[in-house]
Amino acid sequence: MSGEIRTIARALRSASHNTLPNGDLAFLELQGRRLVEKIYDGEELKDQRMVAAGLREGSTAAYAVAKDRVFAVYISDDGLIRVSEFDEDSEEWDDAEVDGLGDISVHDQSHITVAGLPSMNLVLYQAPDGTIKTIMHDKDSDRWTEEFNIPGSAATGTPIAGFSTDEALIVSFFGQDNEIHAHTRDFESGDWTDKTIPDSSFDDTVDSLIVAQDKDSGNFEAYVLSNNTVYNITKTGSRETVGSFSRDGDFVPSTKAESGGCYSNNWGNYCGGYTFGHAAAEKLQEKHVTHGRAPEWHVTEKPCNPGVTKPLPICASNMADNIFVDARKGSLTSTKLEAYLASGVDINAQDPKTGFTPLGMAAKYGRLSIVNLLLDKNASPRAMSKPGMTPLYIAANGNGDRVNIVRKLLEKGAQVDETSAEVDNDTPLMVAITHARDPVVVNMLIDAGASLQAKNSKNETAKELAEQSGNPAIQRAVSPPGQQMAGLPELINALVNFVLFILAYVNSGVINGVVKGVVSNLYHIGQPPPDQTLAQELDNPTTIDDFQKGVEKYVQDSDLGQFFAPGNDYLQKVAEKAIELKDDPRNHLKEPEQMKGLVKLALYQPIFYCDDSGSMQANILDPNGNVVSTRMEAMRSLVQRMSSIATRLVPDGSGAHLRFINSDYQGDDLTADQIDSHMQFQPMGGTNIGTNLKKKVLEPLVFKKLDKDGKLDRPFLVLTITDGEPSPEPVDTFKKTIEECGRRLDQKDYPQESTMFLISQVGNDPHADKFLDSLSGDTAIDRVLFRSSERLHEKYAELRDNEGELEEWLFNILMQPITG
């Protein structure tokens, strides 16, 4: 009995199952009123996690997969549909909001399932009136809406199975005649048809259901779990017992299955020792629901030899079929590929079933390592998949690691605008705009020279499609040169000008009780009159109270309110702090442009993200080999100085935030002296710089605010100081985290520049040099990530005795990500 047949049985018995990228199988299991996820490597249980509590007794659940997110949909003890989401960072499940949808009540015996479509997930359930209904989760907008009803009279408490093909949505359940009905909705016409699997009724309660369809004939068959026994029902109504579960929960196969015998039908053969599902279906797509349990996709391929009873790693009679399967599943290795090529397989051949080349298949399913392997073995980055799709076209709307696959294809010579009439002459850029809706990929393709004016068969250009997309980040990407950075930089300039107006108005002497010329005398900015148009918009105030009210109203009525809500007097306090600097002998930044720079810095929330790994204990030596300090001590001095400059104009109580890679200390709104006191400890641990950038900085400070109400108080400036390359995490984790930040901001209609990043180095580790070099010139993050060109400790040692030059140098470093 093969592991694959046991997997079918386990899938029928579980609440839901999902195949993970590494090939492991994840199962949702109901334990009383708790929902638990179990991860298996073959037969071995690797891990388990709590998903949710408070489920309805004898309830139901389903996985729903959306891009890089995984949900579990279930029925709670109050009879409502609820959702949990898996957090990859914490590796835990958390309650998720069902945006756009109120409470959805279900029948007290309802099962639940999810049918996955390319752009959406359809949740199927039985309503209180017995009707099978759907709600939709849009994968792009993350919105949930109520959708259509499924025709047909359903038996009360029936399991539900749902899946989609290229042409139709198929929903199956037991009707009131106790037979399995497969209801098919044609995507093109919208019409429904109903087919019955004959002799599919059961006297005992049916717990779960898997339904499969042959793509060519359209015939259906089913697997059913009833009274702990698994049955296979074919289109002719014949019924075979596959096996049963013992009292201990072990699956005991039938004699036929145990011996490796095959169940024959018009699809080919299902062999106990070889394949998962009815194997000769061109693309067998299965769904299951167990005790109201949830579905998942499976795509299975025809076995090389239906007569074999043992698994074979490669079947020589059908190697060409296997290379596509391996490319799709991510299981293609260098050894396997060498064997395929040695047997005469064409690396650029098209799969006779799907039309995809191996490279196209890997790009579609987001298998970056397979893309790299195939390209390294000279797969063509331009070889077409049917119908007329280049690998770049496929990758621009692919799953998984889309950004890095697009980057790799461009590096290997993919033609950025290559297309064909079979895809209506849509370019990769067009599909990135209209299907993937991925601003990062859009910017990468534009930077690689993609045409904004080339027309498709519908006479549309990429520029027109972007302008119609409704996505601000994509619209900015196609703006004319000089306008692509519009958004936050434009807003920051407006904010700076407004603060300078406040200073000019105060300087003019119009407000009673304020001495004329106090600001100009301090900052050498002359005595230009304040902007009269703006003054009129504030009703030409002459008292401090009227002035404050006018400022607040102007901020509220203008675009400046994007960051400063009604009642927020932050801008006025920045101006007040600027005036107070006349009494601060430590301030050496008094030139007009420096004054503007300090105002700009005050508009950002600085976050110092510091490396406290064990290597920070290393000594720093001078040119003569003498110990100057440790890396940690050097960083402490630098951060204390930089925070003093970055917060020089911020109001009291609005200082800098401090986070570390390893330490769990979280300091918010700290003064420079407070920061200094919190950096006096022994560093230890690894350098998971990207993992903890997300966990300790972006999740709590940026993402939670966006998810809560979509509102940021101020833009962020994340200042990272490190001494080495990432370890033990992958070296590209830091970059991917910044890319994710950009996507999350785009989703909430904030420009990516709302969170800027600066990374700097202390120490002279050559591995750190290599890591920082790898971050330069990357079009996906160049707009928001900047790198200090010098090793900070070396320049600091050179200037530490010249206070003015030291401040000016650190000021210029801080301004780099703001001014570009």
From TrEMBL:
Keywords: ANK repeat. It holds the Pfam family Ank_2. Transmembrane segments: none annotated. It comes from the Eukaryota. ANK repeats lie at residues 354-386, 387-421, 424-457. Residues 605-814 form the VWFA domain. This is VWFA domain-containing protein. The lineage of its organism: Eukaryota, Fungi, Dikarya, Ascomycota, Pezizomycotina.
